[in-house]
Structure formats: C-alpha cells, structure tokens
Write a structure and sequence with these properties.
By secondary structure, this protein is α/β, with parallel strands linked by helices. It is built from seven helices and seven strands. Helix content is 35%, strand content 13%. The chain has a seven-stranded mixed beta sheet with strand order 1-3-2-4-5-6-7, sandwiched between helices. The longest helix has 20 residues, at 160-179. Residues 20-246 form the Thioesterase TesA-like domain.
Length: 253
C-alpha cells in the first residue's frame, strides 16, 4: 500500500473483511488505532488520513466535503482493486460519516463494488441540518466546541504550539461540514448501521433513524452510553457491533 491516504495499525493475517475508517473533524487516522486492535485479527482495517494533519501536515486541507469524498473515492478504488475479492465496509465518525457516505455513493456510481455496509457514527443523516451550526465558526468557537464535546485533551488545546499545528485542519474541516448540503444522491444499496451515544450533545438519538431513508439495503441502530465521543469508552462494544454487522453480509453470495 503506497497511498498517502491510508494507514494500517495491524497486520491482517487472514482473509476477513476490510473496514475503511473515516475520522471526525480535526481528527486523524490514529483515532481508529484502538478500533483496529479491538476487531478480529483477520480484519484488514484501513484508516483514512486526510491532508493537513500529522504526516500530511504540509498539504492543504480540503474545505469542501464533496471534493474530499472525490479524492478518497479515487484512492480507495485503486486500493480495492489490489484485492478485489475481499468484501469491505466503511465506518465514519461525525464528519467522517458524511465523507464515508459520499465516498460510497461515488464508488457505486462508478459501477464499482460498493461496501457491504456503512457504519455512520455520531452524525445525523445527510439531509439533516446539524451541520449549519458550524457554518460561521471562528477559531474561538471551534475550540469551545472541542472542549464541550470532550474529544480532545484540554491540555493539548491549551498549548499554543499544538494549536498552531491543529487549527488549520480544524478550520478546514468545520468549514467543509458547514458548507455541506446534501445533493439528493442515493440511496445506497449498502445497508446502514447508525451508531450514537445516548448523551450526544450534537445529534439526538431520535434523529439517527433518518439514515434509513438513505439506503435500500436495510437499517440498524446501535445506541451506546456516552456523549459525542462515546467510542473512547465503549470500544469493545463498538467493535462487537461492527463485527456482527459486517460479518452478517460479508460472505453472502
């Protein structure tokens, strides 16, 4: 794998399915390292590394979510072609759920094998209006939101050197989410599993069933204790839900 877009944190030893993971706004591929280690050893877990962070810090981050999905879909199509027989699914958290959804649409439109399932975590459906709250954010608002969601260590956010490194990607990601307007694409052929924390301050549990309108392949809802970053405390249960949801169709004819 030579692409700058994907990271692997485990070595798949068998022929289990592939899971492609899409980070939240301001997040990086390493956010999914714990999930990669919690899943069965034969799963091939790829984490997407968006430009503008960590080892891609020097690259310009995307401020348009659909252009980001265009780029990921192109790279992922090449990656999937290297192992065409392996079934795969997409997992996106928060902003990543939208990027994963748009990526899946592009792969299906191109006539390529689509994912066996989309796991949409911590995010309302593509036609929800939850992204509007990010449309006019200044840096102070973005940082206040991160503190509120408890997704980033406060000590790191209070460090000026760290802030200088992470703010460009944060600005770009929040702008991309704020500008995103669902274009009416879909529905996906792949089933969708929505995952949500029962105390998420961004997306209410009652909003998440709206994802069902964006698939013809079936819908499931998984609710976990916790807030927007419920994954941090529920990794074992999340891994179990992903394993069950992926294997349910991974080897179907």
């Amino acid at each position: 794998m030579n692409s700058t877009w994907f990271r692997r944190y485990t070595t798949a030893t068998g022929y289990g399915p592939r899971l492609v993971c899409f980070p939240h706004a301001g997040g990086s591929a390493t956010a999914f390292k714990p999930l990669a280690h919690a899943l069965p050893a034969d799963f091939d877990v790829l984490a997407v590394q968006y430009p503008g962070r960590q080892d891609r810090f020097a690259e310009e981050p995307f401020t348009d979510l659909e252009r980001l999905a265009d780029a990921v879909a192109g790279e992922l199509a090449r990656e999937l072609a290297s192992d065409p027989g392996r079934p795969y699914a997409l997992f996106g958290h928060s902003m990543g759920a939208l990027v994963a959804f748009e990526t899946a649409l592009r792969l299906e439109r191109a006539g390529l094998p689509g994912p066996r399932r989309l796991f949409a975590s911590g995010r309302g459906a593509p036609d929800s209006r939850s992204g509007e709250r990010y449309r006019y954010y200044e840096d102070a608002d973005v940082l206040a939101e991160l503190h509120r969601l408890s997704g980033t260590d406060r000590v790191l956010l209070d460090n000026p050197e760290v802030l200088e490194m992470v703010l460009p990607a944060l600005r770009a990601d929040y702008r991309a989410v704020g500008r995103y307007v669902w274009g009416g694409g879909g529905p996906l052929a792949a089933p969708v599993t929505a995952l949500i924390g029962d105390a998420d301050p961004v997306v209410a549990v009652a909003e998440t069933p709206a994802w069902e309108a964006h698939t013809t392949g079936g819908f499931a809802l998984e609710v976990f204790p916790g807030g927007h970053f419920y994954l941090n405390d529920q990794m074992g249960r999340v891994a179990a839900a992903v394993t069950e949801g992926l294997l349910a169709r991974a080897f179907a004819a």
